[in-house]
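User: My collaborator sent over this chain with a note saying "see what the structure looks like." That's all I know about it. Can you take a look?
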Amino acid sequence: MSKRDYYEVLGVSKSADKNEIKKAYRKIAMKYHPDKNPDNPEAEAKFKEASVAAEVLLDENKRSRYDQFGHAGVDGQAGGGFGGGFQGGDFGDLGDIFGDLFGDMFGGGRRGGGGRGRSRARRGDDLEMRINVSFEEAAFGCEKEVSIVKSIIKDGTTPQTCTTCNGAGEVRRQQGFFTISQPCPTCHGTGEIAQRVKKKSSLSVKVPSGIDHGQRLKLSGEGDSGSMGGPNGDLYVQVLIEEHEFFQRDEFDVYCDVPISFSQAALGATVEVPTLGGKVEVNIPAGTQSGKRMRLKGKGIQRLGGYGQGDQIITISVETPTKLTDEQRKLFEELAALEQTNTNPLSRGFFDKMKDLFQ
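Assistant: Without extra context I'll predict from the sequence alone. Here is the result:
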């Protein structure tokens, strides 16, 4: 099968400069690299084709011969014989692209002033924990003393050579046609392993007012110790709010059910209602129906940051008595007799519609 034009393979014009060629090759290589397309022969073929084209067009001598004689001018000189891969040898600009490419794909790549090197400073690992707080503590804020076990550098010890990379700070692995270097997964590129110990420590966690269930607090620098001069990790504390006897919560509003009697609902009454700030008196209008909601402005939870406060919403529940005294039964019987006149608007409307339905 005839070879495609190398400029066509990379999608560049014959006047393209090196930067344009590099950019075009890098885009294709990232898309079709075999490690991103396992068991895909078509992608592998496109990756090979683009690599050969880029190697030729990024080399001034090879590009000149290709422009003059076509594929015949560079046959046998491009690709280093793909069967053997690219191990060894100097691939110039193409090698630079490989370094950047693998840095993006596998977390390695170049560091510092253009050469491979170690990043000795390593940040400590982050830690996570959970704490339980009461409904009121979440609403008003509080401080909690917690204990945590963290990893620290053992005093008076010196780092030991990493046995995984033998101090090199990197390991080599085969990736398709290439041998690439990656930071050592054990020492994270430092070449050394610091001697660590576990230490239990106590600290105070400030829970802000208005925090919600499941939210996390970040305590900077309270995680594991960094090594080689690197910063400590952070501690993340997830706050879990315990259920309350009376209250439920929706963001910064508080919900509460308030039971009242038949007579209070019919005649109206003043009842005491619990709030986060203590008991308050609420006027229940005469004729209040079960399920009616009433809003108490500003009786909810302080918003995070201190900007305003939620409301408390109470739901009226008219209780049906389950045990009656003789006197109560007599009064209810008298009431039942009076209710035959259907003076209640809801029931009157219901029964009128029922009569029309069955006539």
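A starting point for your reply to your collaborator: Residues 248-320 form a domain with the HSP40/DNAj peptide-binding domain fold (CATH 2.60.260.20).
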